[in-house]
Amino acid sequence: MSVLRKELFDLPPGVIYLDGNSLGPLTKQVAARLTQLVTDEWGNGLIRSWNKAGWMAQPQRVGDMIAPLLGAPAASVMLGDTLSIKVYQALSAALELRPERRVVLTDSGNFPTDLYMAQGLLQSLDRGYELRIVAPEQVSAALDERVAAVLLTQVDYRTGRLHDMQAITQRAQAVGAVTIWDLAHSAGAIPLALEQAHCEFAVGCTYKYLNGGPGAPAFIYVRPDLIERVRPCLAGWLGHAAPFAFDPDYRPAASIERMRVGTPPVLQLAALEAALAVWTDVDMQALRRASVALAERFIAEVEARCPALTLASPRDPEQRGSQVSFSFDQGYAVMQALIARGVIGDFRAPDIMRFGFTPLYLDEGDIVAAVDALQVILDGELWRAPEYQVTQAVT
Ligand SMILES: *Cc1c(COP(=O)(O)O)cnc(C)c1O
């Protein structure tokens, strides 16, 4: 059965959107839901809506909607804050589970904010921690008894290279290391089985493949058997066992609620909750097959028609997430020219052109049309136009 459901998305006419891996598009139910929230729940309900409209329960309710997409059980996923914050929370908790160890292992393909948050945390702890950054292929070999925690992004944001979550988690646990998976480019893109993988922590954002909208909150998963041992370093009042007791001393909630920090972003969560409706009845294995088919078609068309571009992603679809990257030294200008023609992908320095494949709203016709535009731009060297040479703040 096809997973295609374009009619649920509000894409502008004439646009082929190959950037859902960076910011998912608007879905049709979101605008009406936000209007209702603003006028009824906020406008009329005012502060009563924290109870009456279920605002306070929203972070976990939405967590329970996302859990099946992660292969996680109910009550194991909490929404809130940004992914950078969730990385910090998870790593801090992981280190406390291995107090005698001093190494955090990560790889050079990780997204910079994950590295920066780790650096900031280790510096604040000031206990001689080392952040060990190895090549992605070296992660398994670098796991040893000194590693307290391994912090990895499953799908590389630049190349789409996919880590084997199950194998690395097993290897980490064999040497006693705690595993934190960043699923920023996995959630909603590939089938996930957190419960089966048995990793301790996972984090991710919801504005990429989950279409939650710009600024949508992040999620954190904690393996249920660990939750009562996990100490929240960001001991905010809404993670307290009884926030409205206003107790001067912090006592964490017994459940995943302890990973909450402060007041939830109600409007953003409502947009996300409405956007999640598109996942009803989506078979993630079928989605994966469709994503691989789109990516394979794209690679074949580009290599046949645009020989100046070099594939920067793994050729084996089993080793890739749901994006394909090509390198080209004028990649930024080419991408600007593509965007001007309604084919939207993005660019990552120094020379990576990124294309995301989202089978809920893309079909093979879109892929062929996107490569048609790319070929016209390259054959005619249209990217040389001065307006495509100006680098904008967000690439
Ligand atoms: C997109 C992304 C982020 C973004 O973090 P924010 O705090 O939401 O800005 C972090 N890590 C990875 C791996 C990402 O892909």
CATH architecture of the largest domain: 3-Layer(aba) Sandwich
Total count of strands: 13
Q: How many helical stretches?
A: 12
SSE topology string: EHHHEHEHEHEHEHEEHHEEHEEEH
| Helix-and-strand structural type | alpha/beta
Shape: globular
Strand order of the largest sheet: 2-8-7-6-5-3-4
Give the low-confidence spans.
Answer: none
Distance between the termini: 36 Å
Strand residues, percent: 5-15%
CATH topology value of the largest domain: Aspartate Aminotransferase, domain 2
The CATH superfamily of the largest domain is known as Type I PLP-dependent aspartate aminotransferase-like (Major domain)
Helix content: 25-40%
Which small-molecule ligands are present, each listed once?
pyridoxal-5'-phosphate
User: How many domains make up the coordinates?
Assistant: 2
The biggest beta sheet reads: 7 strands, mixed
What is the rounded Rg? 22 Å
Q: Under the CATH scheme, which class of the largest domain?
A: Alpha Beta
Q: Output mean pLDDT.
A: 97
Keywords:
single chain, about 400 residues, alpha/beta, Aspartate Aminotransferase, domain 1, Aspartate Aminotransferase, domain 2, 2 domains, 7-stranded mixed sheet, 4-stranded antiparallel sheet, 13 strands, about 35% helix, about 15% strand, globular, binds pyridoxal-5'-phosphate
